Structures are given as C-alpha cells and as structure tokens.
Amino acid sequence: xxxxxxxxxxxxxxxxxxxxxxxxxxxxxxxxxxxxxxxxxxxxxxxxxxxxxxxxxxxxxxxxxxxxxxxxxxxxxxxxxxxxxxxxxxxxxxxxxxxxxxxxxxxxxxxxxxxxxxxxxxxxxxxxxxxxxxxxxxxxxxxxxxxxxxxxxxxxxxxxxxxxxxxxxxxxxxxxxxxxxxxxxxxxxxxxxxxxxxxxxxxxxxxxxxxxxxxxxxxxxxxxxxxxxxxxxxxxxxxxxxxxxxxxxxxxxxxxxxxxxxxxxxxxxxxxxxxxxxxxxxxxxxxxxxxxxxxxxxxxxxxxxxxxxxxxxxxxxxxxxxxxxxxxxxxxxxxxx
Length: 337
Ligand SMILES: C[S@@+](CC[C@H](N)C(=O)[O-])C[C@H]1O[C@@H](n2cnc3c(N)ncnc32)[C@H](O)[C@@H]1O
Known about the structure:
Alpha-Beta Plaits
C-alpha cells in the first residue's frame, strides 16, 4: 500500500497551487482526495484547512501583519503555512494551539531549513503570547467589515452604499456559513425523482429543492463521489447559479454565447435546458480552462456545446456572421477591461 501524505503538507501544497495558478480550489481538492493521497479519515480536516484558510485570508493576514512586518521577504509557502496555522489557532476548537504550532514547525523543518523553522516557531509563539491585534483599531467601518469577514473592499463599499452597514455585515456573515451542497440533475438523461432514488440507494441523504425543478439538496455525503455524478446524471452547482440559466428565458433551439464560461457550470446547464439541441458557444481565455468545459460536456453527454479559447472582447468581431440569440457574461468587470 502506498504511504499516505501528511494532511497539513497536502493542504499547504494545495494552498500554494491555488495561489500561484489560480486553479479552482474544489477541483484541486477533489483530485487530491480522488488520488487517495491522504488517509480517508483526514478528508474532513483537509477540506476544512484549505477552504477555511482561503475563506478567512484577509482576516488572518490582518492578524499576522504585526508579527511578520520585519520579515519582508518571506517565501509564499511560509506565509501560507503561517496562514493555515493561524486559521487552526483562531477558528478550530478541536485542535490544541500547541499541536497546530508543532505541526507547522515540523513542516517548516521538512520544507525549509532550521532558520525558517525557528522563524515560524517564533512568529506563532509570539501570537500565542501577545494575542491577536484587535479589529477595533480599524476606524473605517466598511474596511472593518471587509477585514473582519474577509470580503473584498470594493464589494463591501458597494453594499454599504446600497444596503447600509448593518445589512452588509449580516450578508457577509451569512456568506461565511457553509451552504448545503446542491446538485443539478441532468434532465436530458434522467428525471429528478429517478436520480434521487439512485442517490438514496448509494446511501446519500438527499431531498428535492423547493426552488428549482432540476435541483436537489444533499444533507449527507459528497455528491462528487456519487455514481450519478460519475455517469453524467448530475452537476454540483448552487441554486443561485442555476437561476442564471432560468433568467435567460431560453425558448427552443437557440444559439447562446457564454462569453466567460469555464469550468462550464452555466454552459452545461444552458445546454441541458436547450435539450441537447441549439448551440452554446463557450469561450474562455485559458486553454486549460476550456478543457474543463469540454470534459464536463462529455461527462454529461451534451453535444450542443462548442468550447473554444478566445478573449470574449474579440467575440463581437469573430461571431459577426453567426446569429446569436442571447449572451451571458459571467466574469468580474476588472477581467473584461
Ligand atoms: C466566474 S468564472 C465563470 C464561471 C462559469 N460561468 C460557470 O458557471 O462555471 C469567470 C471565467 O471567465 C474567464 N475570463 C475572464 N476574462 C475573460 C475574457 N476576457 N474572455 C474570456 N474569458 C474570460 C476566466 O478565465 C474564468 O474562467
């Protein structure tokens, strides 16, 4: 039997890859779990360490700042190791602080040299000794909400203008709670009731969503490991994301341009709603991401998706002659210039 990797080493490696390649965290995490790299009993902890550290990054960086200020040139893996350890110290009750610090120092010894291990030890011990800096020192209320809930400043400012401080804080806090996993049944291949039955036979606890006719909620189990997922009967997607294809108001055999499409959640939904007819032209800037769209289309047995690498800012010229019925543009404004 192959030797399993240490769960914190794996979490750190994933955090590094996500930061450097801007890879999708869920795909990386699922692939590490699928490759059976870590002990099955550590899957929960791995998920918690990766998602938790990413989710609280801005708050953790605020906590770390005074302790690492004088070490200007820290390598990125050291910063991620410190982040992941502070995450455990602040947010996880079940892991004693000394255990989290011990593990971090061991990783630093394995990956770096003695000097780095003692720096990591020093930073973490002084956090333990001196306590965390107070968020009350941030005087601007929007900035305080942004740091406290790890939401981008531009978004918090926009929400504060629209909804006021109190509502914005509530919205940000709700955003930090773990949602139930939801799945979208591929109605071109199976009915929702049949899919539910299959999942229940496999031991999943699932129920129909009251919001959308193709959605199911998963109360126990990870749908990504189900046979229904593997055989293309199901996609994992939030109900809010599913609403987009409904909002498009697709009628019959249309041609739809999904201008920023990877990994293809909405593209494949639109293709399903077209009943595998019409066409979805799915663009993305990056070749490796276009591949994800094609893989998803193949898994779901959808033949009406044309995925290609293209900057959507050139799409108007490229598709002049094609009659396009609707366009979906799903990317942050700053990506589109
Ligand atoms: C939020 S994701 C889209 C998610 C997708 N709609 C889904 O439901 O799965 C944004 C995508 O837009 C792509 N993107 C950003 N700027 C782009 C551009 N100018 N042209 C094409 N794709 C772009 C990014 O590479 C990224 O994969």
